[in-house]
Amino acid sequence: MEDSLCEPETEIADDAATGPLPTTGIDPQRLPRPEETEPLQIMWRYVIVLSTVHLVALLAFIPWLFTWSGLVAAVAGHFLFGMMGITIGYHRLLTHRGFVCPKWLEHTLAVLGMCNLQDSPARWVAIHRMHHQHSDHQPDPHSPLVNFLWGHVGWVVCRHRRLDRTSHYERYVRDLLRDPFYLKLERKDGWFFVFLAHAIAITFTGAVVGYVVGGGQWAVVGRYAASWYVWAVAVRTVFVLHGTWSVNSLSHVFGYRNYQTRDHSTNNWLVALISHGEGWHNNHHAQPRSAAHGHRWWEFDMSWRIIQGLELVGLAKEVVRPKSKVASDA
Ligand SMILES: [Zn+2]
Ligand SMILES: [Zn+2]
């Protein structure tokens, strides 16, 4: 199977969803929720954690908590954790094997991914491979054809019983779980402690900056620590979360299509902008393994540029490129 991942027995994204092709025009109530989300059960643990990080992010409206260094750290974190961790690490490397890299780099990218409150690498990858297999058909964990809110965040906080089963992991991420590094992270929520550790480290760095800036005044140290916590941890995490969720929601509803795929995926420039190229999602569904998601010259894909850079310095190999041009460009 040309578009399979490296493990033939792992169920991967060939985007060959069965069932009738979606028709054009979207009836937002057309698709039922996945069967195994019935009856609806809220996962309060997720609700509490996600609500907390959103509430903390709202503190950014308090002027006292603004510092330029906190803002710079938030923007830098968006690139480091959001792009390197989620877009390049979780998505293009671990899910689709769009390139290979040394184990130390793969694990580093996975650790960066865990700092975004988007679950463990294995769970994320399994859900996403399942999405590709059943895109916009009923088993799809997060199709916005159920309704927009479901596709954006509803699916995150409602139990999908299949996603918790060992058979689901065996089917979709057997390749990943052969590596003890990923297996360990599944136990006792190891990934969540990585998130907490990074939040503490960032807050501490803010305190150090405050110490330097304020000449040792404790009030300044406290203000900078709080500012970095609010901006570089909470605001950045919320921004990256909505960027990823927008790929699932906006990029399956609004935008244009280069390819006639068996789903409603679209190319959306706004999503591409906030998620470092992930918004070229119709291109991605057409050619899931390609490490480049921008297929036309104007479809700027920051993550692809970074992967090219890694290839240039010998850190990325076997980089998968788009196998065909957009028909109208050929
Ligand atoms: Zn999709
Ligand atoms: Zn994908």
Automatic annotation (TrEMBL):
Region (Disordered): 1-33
Family recorded in the similarity comment: Belongs to the fatty acid desaturase type 2 family.
One GO BP annotation of this record: fatty acid biosynthetic process
Keyword field contains Lipid biosynthesis: yes
Protein known as: Fatty acid desaturase
Membrane topology designation: Multi-pass membrane protein
Gene Ontology MF term list: oxidoreductase activity, acting on paired donors, with oxidation of a pair of donors resulting in the reduction of molecular oxygen to two molecules of water
Organism (species): Rubripirellula reticaptiva
